[in-house]
Each structure stands twice: as structure tokens, then as C-alpha cells.
């Protein structure tokens, strides 16, 4: 069976398709296991200028956190963690994109809980496809490891045997499909 070959990204604005994309996270729980969750509401765009300069913007509705347990999700939304009443969104605005072998490093300002820090995400560009009737789509995969305390999520719930209920390092994983705007 023949395989399709992905095309390069062309100049223009590519809007993130939330139906075909995901933003997920993983964090240690009770030292020995990993809790996984996702954000269900987000938006963003990738813009490639005619001169080839890329930029990325994204916004996440932090209250859309979903871990499969409503009581836990409510706790994560509380002031002890995300404080979604006062900080309903997280944002990302790129500041640089540079090659990293066959992949890229995407650096930008990430704001969560009112605190902005520079973050660098590893980025894989999967190419462009003509799409399925809605126009061209581009695919990307990205990840980063953040320290939750850098963003004001400093709640410590120490365990009597050492360690904490929730780890400090959080791994973000993004699978993005973006639709080229006309």
C-alpha cells in the first residue's frame, strides 16, 4: 500500500482544531504512580510569515481540567492548586523557534495562575496534509516538563514515609492538528 508524504508548512495562519488535538499532563502521585489528566477546552494558532518566521499563541481554559474524578478535578480547580476563580486561563506566546536536529525547540512565555515564565517545548512537525474536505491540516507533537511550584502551585502534602502526595514535576504533552485559514 502506498504511503502519503507530508508537505512542508506554508505561510499563513493555522488554527488549532480542538476536536483533533489534545493537551494532556502527567504528575507523580503518592511517589510511586502517575496521575494523568487533560484540558478539554483550548484554542490557539500557528502563524508562518512570508519570510518564514513562525509564531504560536495558545489559550487553555484551566477549569476544563479532567482527570476522570470530579472530586479531584474540583480540588485541582480550587485555590490550593489552579485557583480557576481568579485565574481562569493559561496562555502561551512563542518567542523563538529553532532547529534541534530533525525537530525543533519552541520557546515562549507561559502564564499560569498569573505567573509568567519562559518555557521550552520539544516540537515535532509531522507535516501538512490536504485534509479531508475542510482544507489543509498540519500536525505537531510537543512536550515539556514544568515545575508546578514555578507557577505558584506550592501546595505540599507530605507523606509520613517521605515524598509528597503530588510531585513537583509535571509533564505536558500536546498533539496538535491545525487547519489552514483561507
TrEMBL record:
InterPro entries: Lipid/polyisoprenoid-bd_YceI, TTHA0802/YceI-like_sf. Pfam families: YceI. SUPFAM superfamilies: YceI-like. Residues 13-179 form the Lipid/polyisoprenoid-binding YceI-like domain. Belongs to the UPF0312 family. This is Protein YceI. It comes from Mycolicibacterium chlorophenolicum.
